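Morning!

This is the sequence you dropped in the shared folder:
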Amino acid sequence: MPDLQFVFVTGATGAIGKAIAANIAKKKSYHVVLVVRDEKKAIQTIKDLRDSTGNSQIEHVIVDLSDHHQVYEFAATWKKPLDILINNAASSPRKRTENKYGIEMQFATNVLGYFSMMDAFREHLSRSPHARIINVASYWAGGLDFSDLQFKTRGYNNDAAYRQSKQADRMLSAAFADRLREYNISVNACHPGDVNSRLSNDLGFGGHESPAIEDIGG
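The structure's back. Tokens below.
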């Protein structure tokens, strides 16, 4: 029996996050932690995953990734190992909204949320001999405007905000891959496919591909 590996999946109650968590949980050597905002959805998702995979080693933690204080508090209280971090959580509100710190919600969640999770859990991951970070980005990325990251001067468009957040995620992945190399932590970005999800619907797309993953490997 291989050593138990602890895996975080953020945004695990959504279509893509749940599919990622389900595929990982098929392997009993993984302990899957759903990092989510909605407790009711988390409880139902855990039941579904346990029923479909037979893996009882699934739990959840409530964290609002748009709030960096919550992320660092989570890291400070997490005493178990961490081997794999999958940053998947994303938001794409149709109207411009801000978190309680006045930061535009897509930038706060999709970009700063990724940054905070990678930074806050760096030491945890560094203690794993096979640490990995996978950032769910998108091929629908581009248009990053450093002069107006939060759409304070230009008109807000959720598609434009999403595209630039995914470009930022790809850039963060490259930057952290370089920064964390000395800790033997690999960092990669991926495109999850054109999935029919709440996020894609908010962007005005239906999505035609399944979120299911054949094999995560490893």
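Headline: The CA atoms of residues 16 and 211 lie 5 Å apart.

More detail when I'm at my desk.
O.
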